[in-house]
Give the backbone structure.
Amino acid sequence: MIRILKYGEVDKEQIFARAVPEVNVTDIVADIIATVRREGDRALLSYTEKFDKATLTSLAVSDEEKREALAAVEPEFLAVLERAAANIRRFHEKQVRSGFILNEENGIVMGQKVIPIDRAGLYVPGGTAAYPSTVLMDAIPAKIAGCREVVMVTPPGKDGKLNPAILAAAHVAGVDRIFKVGGAQAIAALAFGTESIPRVDKIVGPGNAFVAEAKKQVFGTVSIDMIAGPSEILVVADATADPVFVAADLLSQAEHDRLASAVLITDSKALAEAVRDEIERQLCTLPRAEIARASIDSNGKIIVAKDLDAAIEVANALAPEHLELCVDNPFDLLGSIRHAGSIFMGKYCPEALGDYLAGANHTLPTGGTARFSSPLSVDDFVKKTQYTYYSKDALRAVADDVARFAKREGLCAHARSATVRFENEAKK
């Protein structure tokens, strides 16, 4: 059963503690990466047989497989995918940046170019659940950014096939190439390339502990979006909130995995108790009740604060992945929120709306990293390059200043590179 804690009366460790995976996979992942670098496709096929119990002759998804998947998906769901994609595009198109130019009158030109990365790699999890929403959220910003190629990897089922919904989402999002491989080995393939899978410039997308560790180990060879931890939801609610709604929203994240975190902060003891009881009632009706139960019992908590100001203080300290403001006037609180991955406003904006349809991205910072990082966006798929032009007269005017600065740092060659261009003038 979920715990009820009173803020200010219990040790802060109980308030701010987070679930941490206990398994150490560092050495296992390092060995997988080294093997993929050495053996390429042969290693990927071997690992796929070992971990996914699928025997493959080819890693690439064929055009025929894509056509079969589209035919297998009901038209109603395909329409939902299209609607979600349209919302995601509309939101992310507002994020597109332009470069700038500074033209000075004395022969100086400076500027910045915004350039899309050439090739983006998307990891889409498999296992206990399939996530076509992740395909849309990760691929569409990359396409809007202008990436030349978007490559997707995802683990196959035991029959060697991919979930049709995953392939349908890839079609809707415009993914260019798809490969049937998952786990740390898929991250290694994207980072270093194999005979079949091209090397990418950036890897994005969530995964299990092995995927997260692999992303950490290949960072520097390629860029990554973030190291994603267990899913989190934090609901701030007052006495007017409906306990049925709040319990449902907490369970929506608890069913992700056993380490997921579901937290309610409220200024109402009555609501806290009603939500606790409602969680118990709803939990036993869930198909993934075993997973949700483990999450709620181990990592769930209800925090009773003296008022909403104190509730927001705790929310900012936790810096959650998902933050719901289940109050009548959520915009009154919005200005006080400093740290959250994504904020859901009001009593009729469940976090699941953001997972699937609203349009804001659902690939979000976890584990308190919202203190310094942001949701996945178009910015993740571009880089900035700056440029500078000085005319001869413009350099002449500042050459001595450059030299003086360089000599102060003990870098005489730097200094001379600025003054040497005018030595002959000084001799005349």
User: Anything to note?
Assistant: Residues 64 and 70 are 10 Å apart (CA to CA). The first helix runs from residue 12 to 16.
